[in-house]
Design a protein that fits this description.
Shape: globular
CATH superfamily: YVTN repeat-like/Quinoprotein amine dehydrogenase
Distance between the termini: 21 Å
Number of domains: 1
Oligomer: single chain
Strand content: 35-45%
Radius of gyration: 21 Å
């Protein structure tokens, strides 16, 4: 699919339309031999204006974006790939012909659908049945703003691009809530709620302009607010950092601040919402820093204050990237995983909460899961891709030309597997889960190819 082209109501292209694309199978030796497809679409000169998705179209739709879960936790559910072990499967390679920025995938009854956004907002889409070959398809929707992550609206076999409101920040990913409401950040740094009838309402709140809206419940969202430029960190694209975590109840103008950083800053784009202490209530995990130190803390999502904090590290050497919370321990214990100094010689570190302390329980060095200045924090995800019953962290190696699985096992953090990307990582590492619980992984490279492990 080429962004800006005419769209049909059906989600998938007809067989005749598919014949305009060249399908080429390339067979090579080894576990990462690839079948390759070359798209022929070219970018439009200018995008049409974005419009609001009509409420009648929403129905019981599932929305999928590059952040794996709406709570900001990069923990993929499911286990194993659909066609074998990641160490052995033949990859599907698609020649995109240009550099991509984002990849989003979803499962349908007809197969896996992968949507790739190029740097200029052009979008390509592919259908891949399990064991089959990639076919270019048409996923309807407006062209994306350059750099904007594609959000998919999925209903059965129908997949389309969810239309971002015209006044949304290009870095905003809308969250769809009860009553067909959409919550997003507008281009004036305001949290905005769009009602089905087109009505807009906004709380009296200034949010971080590139914050991701995190969903707490069908009626509540969590955002980073009250930005400051007191520390010129710039690791995430600008000098602005949030100083507050705020819960907003949609439908009513209700705002509750659950954490303030005081003289420090929250060095992230979104809070991570997960149950860290096992009491059945989600907590908020954050990276907090100043001009000297950086640390991880866990705060109560109900306003109970700070629950646990880690030892600080030297902020002059880099920042701390929170990845996921989940059953990451050797026997499935709940742990937090981060990448320390992800822009350089990064270390995967597993943290366990005990009392008011977050302690390091395992570490493994040699990974680089972030490019300095990028807002893409999705180059690391936790999932059981190798189907051994244990969740590993999936992230790029130091040369960014492989993805690897790192597990906290009985003897510490160990490398479980490593697979070549066929180039240098350019996008997020995308994971989709099928109804049968199996997974698929995809990522695109600077050299212009999309590689899929199915």
């Amino acid at each position: 699919m080429k962004g800006g082209a005419s769209r049909r109501a059906a989600a998938f292209a007809s067989p005749l339309a598919l014949l305009v694309f060249l399908l080429a199978a390339i067979t090579a030796c080894g576990s990462d031999s690839a079948n390759q497809v070359n798209p022929t679409a070219t970018p439009d000169a200018s995008p049409p204006p974005a419009t609001v998705t009509p409420a009648l179209e929403l129905g019981s739709i599932t929305y999928v974006d590059p952040v794996y879960q709406p709570n900001g936790n990069r923990l993929a559910l499911g286990s194993g790939l659909g066609s074998g072990f990641i160490q052995q499967v033949t990859t599907k390679d698609i020649n995109l012909g240009d550099v991509s920025t984002w990849v989003t995938g979803t499962s349908t009854p007809d197969g896996d659908v992968w949507v790739v956004a190029l740097a200029d907002g052009t979008v390509y889409s592919y259908l891949i049945p399990i064991g089959g070959q990639p076919s270019p398809i048409d996923v309807p929707g407006e062209r994306l703003t350059p750099g904007q992550p594609p959000v998919l609206a999925v209903q059965g076999n129908t997949v389309r691009l969810a239309t971002t409101p015209a006044n949304a920040s290009p870095n905003s990913v809308p969250v769809y809530l009860t009553g067909s409401r959409a919550a997003y950040v507008d281009n004036l740094q305001r949290l905005t709620v769009l009602e089905p009838d087109g009505t807009l309402w906004r709380p009296d709140l200034k949010v971080l302009p590139d914050t991701r809206v995190v969903q707490i419940s069908p009626e509540k969202v969590l955002v980073l607010a009250e930005p400051t430029n007191r520390f010129p960190h710039s690791a995430l694209g600008d000098n602005l950092e949030a100083t507050a975590v705020v819960v907003v109840t949609v439908g009513v103008n209700e705002v509750e601040t659950i954490y303030r950083s005081e003289d420090n800053v929250i060095e992230s784009i979104a809070p991570l919402l997960a149950d860290v202490d096992g009491d059945g209530i989600d907590d908020v995990a954050l990276t907090v820093s100043n001009d000297r130190d950086a640390w991880i803390l866990v705060a109560s999502s109900t306003g109970g204050g700070v629950m646990a904090i880690s030892d600080p590290v030297d902020r002059l050497l880099g920042w701390r990237q929170l990845v996921a919370v989940g059953p990451l321990g050797p026997t499935g214990q709940t742990e937090i995983v981060e990448v320390l100094y992800p822009d350089a010689q990064g270390s995967v570190r597993f943290l366990s909460m005990s009392g008011g302390k977050l302690g390091i329980v395992a570490t493994r060095t040699g990974y680089r899961s972030h490019e300095f200045g990028a807002r893409n924090l999705e180059q690391a995800v936790a999932a059981d891709v190798d189907r051994d019953g244990h969740v590993e962290v999936i992230l790029p190696t130091l040369d960014r030309q492989h993805i690897a699985g790192v597990r906290h096992g009985p003897d510490g953090a160990v490398d479980m597997w490593s697979r070549p990307l066929g180039g240098t990582l350019a996008t997020n590492i995308a994971v989709l889960t099928r109804p049968d619980g199996t997974l698929s992984v995809a990522a695109a490279t600077v050299e212009g190819s999309l590689r899929i492990w199915q």
